[in-house]
């Protein structure tokens, strides 16, 4: 059994630590999709990719709905 203890000053700080993997996953997915649209698509495809990820990025930045 593995027990992980995270000591934080506030609930918000703990939430940030616990959501770190979700933030990383979001950024990796965004990077991959953006790279593919730049490499294989047009400027319009790049804009569609940004538009597709924008709600998740805004939620992650706002810290109010979780990362993903």
What is the strand and helix layout of this fold?
Layout: H1 11-18, H2 20-40, H3 43-62
What would your notes on this structure say?
The protein is mostly helical and 68 residues long. The protein has one domain (12-62). It has 3 helices and no strands. It has helices at 11-18, 20-40, 43-62. 3% of the residues are buried. The mean pLDDT is 85.
Strand percentage, roughly?
Answer: under 5%
Radius of gyration: 16 Å
Q: How would you describe the oligomerization state of the chains in this entry?
A: single chain
The tally of structural domains comes to 1
Task: Briefly summarize what is shown.
By secondary structure, the chain is mainly α. It has helices at 11-18, 20-40, 43-62. Helix 2 (20-40) packs antiparallel against helix 3.
List its traits.
3 helices; mainly alpha; 72% helix
